[in-house]
Design a protein that fits this description.
This protein is mainly alpha-helical. The two termini are about 25 Å apart. The relative contact order is 0.14. The mean pLDDT is about 90.
Length: about 375
Amino acid sequence: MADGNITKDLIYDAVAPDDFESMLELDRYNARSTAFDKIISATHDHFWDPLDPKYIDFSEPFDMAKTMILPEKMIGPLQLDYVNETLGSEARRVAFANASTLRTFSSILHGEQGALNLSASLCHVLKDQGAQEYAANQTREEARHVTAFARYIKARWGRPVECGPVLKDLLVEIIHAPEVYKKIIGMQMLVEGLAMGAFATIYKETNDPLARKLTQLVMTDEAFHHKFGKIWADRTIPHLSAAEHEIIENWAAHCFQTLLFNLVAPNQNMSLYAEFGLDPQRVVAEMAEIVTDETRRENMKEATNIFRVLVKTLVNAGIITERTKAFYATYVDIEELKGEGEAMVGDEIAEQGIQYLQAINFKDRARQVLIAAE
């Protein structure tokens, strides 16, 4: 078992990443769990190839000079009079908005690379064959996400921008963590949950049909990845001691706070403001006046708000207790989330995407597959 790991079910038993000898134990080969079989078998139903235009065509044109990929309401600095006055023309406002959107998609690309490395790292430590096969499948799916987002960015902007320091540090911390619970909570539940919320928002709001198709195809995979975290929670959280629950709850709160207060913070885009002749410090200061706890709470009333999705993920997993409930309640109504059930934002979009893929992959023998498979 990896040092410090909290294992309540043998299907999540883990070894050190360099302990290959444990993978050769004879009893291990006859002890394969069936917990992930439905998710694994469903891989064929939501297969897609970002290099094949029958699934998605990255040559689809879009007039970047005249149209914002994401609407103005999603570009925070465009809510400031100072920014609009300094940019001046509509063409400059569109250019600024699309440059900001490049940062968004670059962060997504880096996050997908993190998910690829994370799922690959699980292959090295999970002893159960079923869990290991699931992780291998996810690694394959994350690899196509990296390819797809890299191709989208190349088609629209040419190349991505650097990963922001906050996201980079969190990804490194999660990937290098020896504890399986840190990997699953950090990536499978929170970063994947963040992705589902972001993709659902982009799908709903984008002016670019290619971005809409891309996010839907990725969501057909991500919904299953999120399910892997749900299975872990169901088999782990109810059996934790009070001390163990506190450890896991603290880790979840650490990841959530890091994402909430830093990931989309104005100070993450200082170079963008300077690039367009804006005073970075003034933009950050004025944004701080309009982005408050109250505005965060108001924004989290939207079902697709990415941070609302994260809180709901933790609520459904049973991770949040009275000890930390007050922190999350600053931004979202916990009881309201509990009353919504376990359906996650983006599930319906993903299921529609699966039907689209089935029509391609199986033609007249398409069959329905629910992402809630266990």
